[in-house]
């Protein structure tokens, strides 16, 4: 194993990986499911692009085909390819919110609140209301109700949007809870957005039907790189008028691109090959094996292992978390803290 670490320290050619000459460095990288290596078929899809249109004019055939494909897969009437999950979330938030003051209720652990550079506050002038789930796994309807600002009191910013993330920390949010929050949001006239970067994993793990889950939200952002292994990109889905606004704000933040088929072709291949091809379940099986091995060492988990993430509690096995990067490097691995992420790779 240790000898393989040398491969991570030098330039590695996709061609060599495709021909089986070497193993992908991603095989030893457990930091995230964003470190995957594109498969030969993903790379070949770029070469097979027949028409290089301009997506700013909605004339890139490959991109249009991807958007139509995702629309049919999810049941939403419109879609827009974006450069990243962060961009997808932020243009969605901006498209839902019109005139401030307004607030957004969300899970305190979510990507939108913690890892998007304060975008909701800057781009949408929104007050973020982070809520810590009492059960340690997911928000409940009661917690959402307790934190939504449904008042004309001029001291407060009324809640106009609820954002969920599924999975979050690898944990699947129960479909019944999503249904209840969705019904509440509709009753109050509050928009409902899902950061579904890893929603593919939810479906692969039996957490619900893709179309049904998505039907409870006004908008959803889906990622092609996390877990699926495409080089880049996400997609936002929703109603036609909403996606029209998304395209406007995507342009505003510099996300409208020209011959972007070089990104959307492998994105479609990733969905077909990894998600529809059933390969995500293998990552879940490997995560369960890691969980079992850790338990045999006397270790406990910080969060339950539902999908492809294993959250270790190092102290429970007498391990100092600060030692993880050093010890991992000795074994030829890239692993920085208590989270282990298993992913699809060539």
Automatic annotation (TrEMBL):
Gene3D superfamilies: Type I PLP-dependent aspartate aminotransferase-like (Major domain). Keywords: Lyase, Pyridoxal phosphate. One of its GO terms (molecular function) is L-allo-threonine aldolase activity. Its cofactor is pyridoxal 5'-phosphate. GO terms for biological process: glycine biosynthetic process; L-threonine catabolic process. It comes from the Eukaryota. InterPro entries: ArAA_b-elim_lyase/Thr_aldolase, Low_specificity_L-TA-like, PyrdxlP-dep_Trfase, PyrdxlP-dep_Trfase_major. Residues 29-313 form the Aromatic amino acid beta-eliminating lyase/threonine aldolase domain. One of its GO terms (cellular component) is cytosol. The keyword Lyase applies. The modification N6-(pyridoxal phosphate)lysine is found at residue 226. It holds the Pfam family Beta_elim_lyase. NCBIfam families: GntG_guanitoxin. Belongs to the threonine aldolase family. This is Aromatic amino acid beta-eliminating lyase/threonine aldolase domain-containing protein. It comes from Orbilia oligospora (Nematode-trapping fungus).
């Amino acid at each position: 194993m240790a000898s393989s670490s040398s491969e991570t320290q030098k330039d590695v050619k996709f061609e060599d990986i495709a021909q089986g000459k070497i193993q992908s460095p991603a095989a030893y990288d457990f930091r995230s499911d964003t470190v995957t290596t594109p498969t030969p078929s993903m790379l070949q899809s770029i070469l097979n692009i027949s028409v290089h249109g301009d997506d700013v004019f909605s004339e890139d055939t490959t991109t249009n085909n991807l958007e139509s494909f995702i629309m049919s897969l999810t049941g939403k009437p419109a879609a827009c390819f974006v450069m990243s999950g962060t961009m997808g979330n932020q243009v969605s938030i901006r498209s839902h919110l019109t005139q401030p003051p307004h607030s957004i209720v969300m899970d305190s652990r979510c990507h939108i609140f913690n890892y998007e550079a304060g975008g909701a506050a800057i781009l949408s002038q929104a007050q973020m209301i982070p809520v810590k789930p009492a059960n340690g796994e997911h928000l409940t309807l009661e917690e959402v109700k307790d934190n939504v600002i449904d008042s004309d009191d001029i001291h407060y910013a009324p809640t106009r949007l609820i954002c969920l993330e599924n999975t979050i920390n690898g944990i699947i949010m129960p479909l019944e809870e999503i249904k209840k929050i969705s019904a509440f949001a509709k009753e109050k006239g509050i928009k409902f957005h899902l950061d579904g970067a890893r929603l593919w994993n939810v479906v692969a793990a039996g957490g619900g039907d893709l179309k049904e889950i998505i039907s409870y939200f006004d908008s959803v952002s889906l990622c092609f790189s996390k877990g699926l292994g495409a080089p880049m990109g996400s997609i936002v889905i929703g109603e036609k008028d909403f996606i029209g606004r998304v395209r406007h704000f995507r342009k505003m933040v510099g996300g409208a691109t020209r011959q972007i088929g070089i990104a959307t072709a492998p994105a479609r291949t990733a969905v077909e090959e990894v998600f529809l091809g059933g390969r995500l379940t293998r990552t879940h099986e490997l995560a369960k094996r890691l969980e079992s091995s850790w338990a045999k060492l006397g270790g406990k988990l910080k969060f339950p292992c539902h999908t492809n993430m294993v959250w270790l509690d190092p102290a429970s096995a007498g391990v100092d978390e600060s030692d993880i990067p050093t010890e991992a490097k000795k074994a030829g691995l890239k692993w920085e803290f208590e989270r282990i992420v298993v992913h699809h790779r060539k």
